[in-house]
Design a protein that fits this description.
- The protein is an alpha+beta fold.
- It has one helix and five strands.
- The strands form two sheets. A three-stranded antiparallel beta sheet has the order 3-5-4. The chain has a two-stranded antiparallel sheet with strand order 1-2.
- β1 and β2 form a beta hairpin.
- The chain is globular.
C-alpha cells in the first residue's frame, strides 16, 4: 500500500510512501506523463500548469499535469487519497 505523509526532508512538504520494503529496481508505480525538457516545464509553470513534474535531467522531465487518472500525483492529504494496493 502507498500513503501520503509529511516528508522528513526539510522544505519538501508531503510525499508518497510505501508500507513494505522494496529492493532497488522494484517498480512501485509508473509515473505517466509527457516527456519534455525542463525549459518546457518552466514555460508551462508561467501559464499556471505546474506541480506534477518528475525531474530527470534538464533535457528530460515527465510532466503529468495533463495526464488523466494520475493517482500518484493527485492526493494532497491522507483524507483525499484512496488506499492503493500493490
Amino acid at each position: 500500500m502507498v500513503y501520503i505523509k509529511k516528508s522528513q526532508i526539510p522544505k519538501a512538504g508531503k510525499g508518497l510512501f510505501v508500507e513494505k520494503e522494496y529492493r532497488r529496481g522494484d517498480i512501485i508505480c509508473e509515473y505517466e506523463g509527457e516527456f519534455v525538457p525542463w525549459s518546457e516545464c518552466e514555460k508551462r509553470a508561467q501559464e499556471g500548469h505546474e506541480g506534477y513534474v518528475f525531474f530527470i535531467s534538464k533535457n528530460r522531465c515527465v510532466d503529468a499535469y495533463f495526464t488523466p487518472g494520475r493517482w500518484d500525483a493527485m492526493p494532497t492529504t491522507p483524507e483525499e487519497s484512496e488506499e492503493c494496493r500493490d
